[in-house]
Design a protein that fits this description.
CATH class of the largest domain: Mainly Beta
Number of strands: 14
Largest sheet: 6 strands, mixed
Strand order of the largest sheet: 2-1-10-11-7-6
CATH architecture of the largest domain: Beta Barrel
Distance between the termini: 83 Å
CATH superfamily of the largest domain: Butyryl-CoA Dehydrogenase, subunit A, domain 2
Radius of gyration: 25 Å
Helix content: 40-55%
CATH topology of the largest domain: Butyryl-CoA Dehydrogenase, subunit A, domain 2
């Protein structure tokens, strides 16, 4: 069943506990830190369900309709349909929502495509995964994830030597009804306005960390569970005109704290198996499906960046300068190449199982590495093209309320091609893309949301066909021999 925007907003009034400093938030739909992003997602739910979009954004099975991002692809056409749905969402949000509902839904759908990862190992619960996936798609659940331990977890010996408990999330007790967990998990982007969360591990665990291997899908309102939000950005935005990206797309990031939280067995996917807690992401289709969505999102953001670069140079009169046109041409070539990399993931798809197909792992990881390495340079280019233009405008657009000030503003800030208000609108948007607090958060997000660049490159190393590369060289060398010097 496809959820409406109102149904989505109502689902957030579930009694979750969110801390912003010492302030307690119980309803994110009415708090100024979260109400705007909640309404952004509500609008997305309505867009997804609109009659003109329903064939693209959903699929039918046994007389019911489900969101396309829960589709398990059996053919190349299914992969194409998923990609078109991702692109619809990322174009609609300009690539600025890292944890839109299609992102983590793809994680669990990818797990469900290869349940043998759980079936072939102790501590795996494939039957729970199947039921949970069905619940997510039937109820059109907005899922996020928290799959990284706190930094303190990197030095467990310290806590052992001090005789104190590590803050990392772990199972501390189990009974016939489920497990009890304590500790912390990072970093649940969108948690303040999502419905549920998958808690797990994307980083490898040592064999003696079995208690930390717990992987589960749970709602946010369990007793003893709290969400600790970073400093909100949107709360400080007074006029959407001056910071439209912060106003609409500050999706929130939360640390999750668990104090004697009881998890029913039916919500558990992995327990007491350290390697499996990561393998369920990496060895299934989970990591690939979700990060294909990330590639689509980054491409939409690139398109926004290129449009901004073009518009800024037109506003400054530099658009026809040869050096500027060369820069814009270089950006255009980069955007086209990245788009082709996404298409290649479809057309070079692989057979995951006898039943399901999957985007090309190699090309997907290449896209992740490219995005992490080039995002900052793309924004720096826009910043350079913009120069000091953003600092050449008044402090606030509220000056137009004063007729005398507005007359002076129009007189001195207008150009032959652009009115003063239009120019300020463009430069304010550009600053929110490259220089504001929101822009800084997005820059860190692009660099580190999959991990440091060296870890992303390692995925490319693992999935590269080195035997094929070696064979090319060996084949070439076999075509000639060492000269015969005996004669």
């Amino acid at each position: 069943m496809l959820k409406s925007g109102k149904e989505y907003l109502d689902s957030l009034k579930d009694g979750r506990v969110i801390y912003i400093g010492d302030e307690t938030v119980l309803d994110p739909t009415t708090h100024p830190a979260f109400d705007r992003i909640a309404n952004t997602y509500a609008a997305l739910y309505d867009q997804k369900k609109a009659p003109e979009n329903i064939d693209l954004m959903s699929y039918e099975e046994k007389g019911e309709r489900f969101s396309t991002y829960f589709l398990k692809p059996r053919t190349q056409a299914d992969l194409e349909k998923r990609t078109r749905a991702h692109r619809f969402i990322t174009e609609w949000s300009y690539g600025l929502l890292g944890r839109s509902p299609d992102a983590t839904a793809s994680n669990v759908t990818g797990m469900a495509m290869k349940p043998t990862v759980l079936e072939d190992n102790d501590g795996g619960f494939p039957e729970h995964l199947s039921v949970l996936w069905e619940h997510l798609r039937t109820d059109d659940i907005f899922l996020t994830y928290a799959i990284v331990p706190p930094p303190a977890a990197r030095n467990p010996q310290y806590y052992q030597s001090k005789g104190i408990e590590s803050p990392t999330l772990r199972v501390t007790k189990e009974d016939d009804a489920g497990v009890t967990i304590n500790g912390m998990k990072f970093l649940a982007t969108g948690a303040a306005v999502a419905n549920e969360v998958i808690v797990g591990n994307i980083l490898p665990l040592a064999p003696d960390q079995a208690a930390e291997s717990i992987t589960c899908i749970i709602p946010f309102n369990l007793p003893g569970m709290s969400l600790w939000a970073r400093k909100p950005i949107a709360e400080d935005v007074k006029y959407e005109f001056e910071a439209p990206l912060s106003f609409r797309y500050d999706e929130s990031d939360c640390m999750l704290v668990f104090e004697d939280v009881h998890i029913p067995w039916e919500n558990v996917i992995v327990h007491n198996n350290a390697p499996l807690s990561r393998d369920v992401f990496i060895k299934s289709a989970s990591h690939v499906l979700s990060n294909h969505q990330s590639n689509c999102r980054f491409h939409s953001k690139m398109r926004l960046v290129l449009g901004m670069a073009s518009m800024i140079t037109k506003a400054t009169g530099a658009h026809d300068v040869p050096a500027v046109r060369e820069t814009l041409g270089r950006l255009a070539a980069m955007e086209a190449g990245f788009g082709a990399l996404i298409d290649a993931q479809i057309y070079a798809h692989e057979q995951l199982t006898e039943e399901f197909v999957l985007y090309s792992r190699r090309y997907m990881y290449a896209g992740l590495a490219w995005a992490a390495e080039h995002h900052s340079a793309l924004l720096d280019t826009v910043r350079e093209l913009m120069g000091g233009g953003v600092f050449q405008f008044p402090a606030s657009i509220n000056l137009v309320r004063d007729p005398t000030l507005k007359t002076m503003f129009d007189k001195y800030w207008s150009t032959v091609d652009d009115a003063s208000v239009d120019r300020m609108k463009l430069f304010s948007l550009a600053w929110d893309l490259v220089g504001s607090a929101h822009a800084s958060r997005l820059q860190s997000y692009e660099k580190f949301f999959v991990g440091p660049v060296f870890s992303i490159r390692n995925y490319s190393y693992i999935n590269a066909p080195w035997d094929e590369f070696d064979a090319i060289v060996e084949d070439l060398m076999q075509q000639y021999d060492v000269p015969d010097f005996t004669n």
